[in-house]
Specification:
- This protein is α/β, with parallel strands linked by helices.
- The chain contains eleven helices and eleven strands.
- The protein has a six-stranded mixed sheet with strand order 2-1-3-10-4-11, with helices on both faces. A five-stranded mixed sheet has the order 7-6-8-5-9, with helices on both faces.
- It is globular.
- The relative contact order is 0.18.
């Protein structure tokens, strides 16, 4: 009886596994939608590059559906059937926002299946051209000499440039005076005009448009290691060990999506991202290709939640 029971159990497991493989092999049979943020954002542009590539690879329609903020987009995908036909493309606001907002329509660690960490977007520390500090070391020295005297510009609370600056304050043990603005454009204008002295914007447009033309001066990049997107620029971490603050984009499926589908999507997205023309387009947008495994994306999320959670709690940051 024991032997017969073991055989039956073995056959049942084999049938489940073979069904999962078959499911992956049959996928996709119909159109796929990728839910992303507002149209025209870098998030949207990368989602469309992936959608175009998958459409060619799968010979099935792949559409991008713009849903605005991460909470809305995340809720749509979290509630979708776990069949691989509804995906989410979003940046790390997806897992950082819950740290600043107590009520969320999803649990980011339980309701999503990571597929790939797609790209990383570094920030840069920039100053007004007339600002005396020429390095991060000099900026820290000035800030410690006169606490609260240096003004930094940021967009709304909880945005990447705000968190990058607050992490710098936290890790460098300095006090900078935050001046909030309604969006990146007015924050950049304030720094260029001298209304504020420092800012932590994304590298791409800032380096190409404002640093290159002399309207701003770059002190450092926020990646852990020197970035190919900012050649010759030192890292903040060279002066503040362990400092790192980037915007990371990922692709997700609803939790429970079969592993064969997750693995197939991971493989196909990596193939798309490593195409020379795609890498060039992404570099022009200030984005560095990562193309990770699902496990690496989940580990990134866990690490971010732990480190940024401490910062957000200590600084009392909310996105309200």
């Amino acid at each position: 009886m024991k032997s017969r029971s073991s055989i039956c159990m073995f056959l049942a497991v084999a049938m489940i596994l073979s069904a999962g493989v078959a499911f992956g092999q049959d996928y996709p049979k119909k159109a796929i939608r990728i839910v992303a943020s507002e149209a025209g954002s870098s998030n949207d542009m990368v989602a469309r590059m992936i959608a175009d590539g998958l459409q060619k690879r799968f010979n099935q329609p792949v559409m991008v559906e713009n849903r605005g903020g991460g909470v809305i987009a995340g809720a749509v995908v979290a509630q979708a059937p776990p069949d691989g036909y509804t995906l989410l493309y979003f940046a790390n606001g997806l897992w950082i926002t819950p740290l600043m907002r107590p009520k969320m329509p999803y649990d980011v660690m339980k309701d999503f299946a990571p597929i790939s960490w797609v790209v990383t977007v570094p920030n840069v520390v920039v100053v007004h051209p007339a600002f005396p500090a020429k390095s991060i070391k000099e900026l820290i020295a000035m800030a410690k000499a006169k606490p609260g005297s240096i003004k930094y510009a940021s967009a709304s609370a909880g945005t990447a440039n705000h968190l990058a600056a607050e992490l710098f304050k936290y890790m460098a043990h300095v006090d900078l005076d935050r001046i909030p603005y309604k969006g990146m454009a007015p924050a950049l204008n304030a720094t260029m005009s001298g209304e504020t002295s420092v800012m932590f914007p994304s590298a791409g447009v800032t380096m190409a448009t404002y640093v290159k033309t002399g309207k701003l001066r770059a002190l450092a990049v926020t990646t852990k290691k020197p970035s190919p997107l900012t050649p010759g620029l030192p890292t903040v971490a060279e002066t503040v060990p362990g400092y790192e603050s980037n915007v990371d984009h990922g692709v997700f499926a609803p939790a429970g999506t079969p592993a064969p589908i997750i693995n197939l999507l991971n493989k196909e997205i990596a193939h798309i991202l490593h195409q020379d023309d795609v890498k060039k387009k992404l570099a022009n947008l200030g984005l560095e290709v990562v193309a990770s495994s699902p496990e690496e994306l989940r580990n990134l999320m866990k690490s971010d939640v732990e480190s940024m959670g401490k910062l957000i709690k200590a600084a009392g940051i909310t996105d309200n």
